[in-house]
Design brief:
Layout: H1 2-65, H2 69-73, H3 91-97, E1 103-115, E2 118-129, E3 132-145, E4 151-153
Antiparallel strand pairs: 1-2, 2-3, 3-4
């Protein structure tokens, strides 16, 4: 009789331990599945974010090539600050920056890297001066997401 009670106790302990282990494994598997779901979701988000950043750089340089500086200025990051900021840059300041540079005639986007709300886009530029073209390779354009989650070019930083 004593031996039967001892076996019952061991059997009960084994069942409880098995249930506990099963619960732990199930919870761990759920976390792993959620982690996998997050990774897959973030990779799609990352691709969309890269596409948006590239679109911003493309729009900016297309406007520059077309000599439409007002349109290009729409792609420039302007920090939003409370109150009046006397150092805030304007469209006129942006246009003055282009007074002393040569005419950009074409561009090529090479690669992009996105981390959170910051992106770097690598661009090759071709400009012309006195009828001669010059290539600027591997120029890095910095972008940041503004308060509306839109990619903007960090022009003055």
């Amino acid at each position: 009789m004593y031996r039967a009670v001892k076996i019952k106790n061991y059997l009960l302990a084994a069942i409880i331990l098995g249930l506990l282990l099963s619960c732990i494994l199930t919870l761990t598997a759920c976390e792993q599945i959620n982690g996998l779901k997050d990774k897959v979701f973030n990779s799609f988000n990352s691709k969309a974010s890269q596409d948006e950043a590239v679109s911003t750089v493309k729009g900016f340089f297309e406007a520059i090539v077309a000599d439409d500086l007002d349109e290009a200025f729409k792609y420039v990051y302007m920090p939003r600050t409370e109150g009046v900021n006397k150092d805030e840059k304007t469209s006129d300041d942006f246009k003055k920056e282009f007074n002393s540079i040569t005419k950009i005639v074409s561009f090529k986007i090479n690669w992009i890297e996105v981390k959170n709300n910051i992106a770097i886009v690598n661009v090759d530029l071709i400009d012309t001066y006195d009828g001669e073209e010059k290539i600027y390779k591997d120029m890095q354009v910095s972008l940041v997401k503004d308060s509306e989650e839109t990619w903007k070019i960090n022009f003055w930083e």
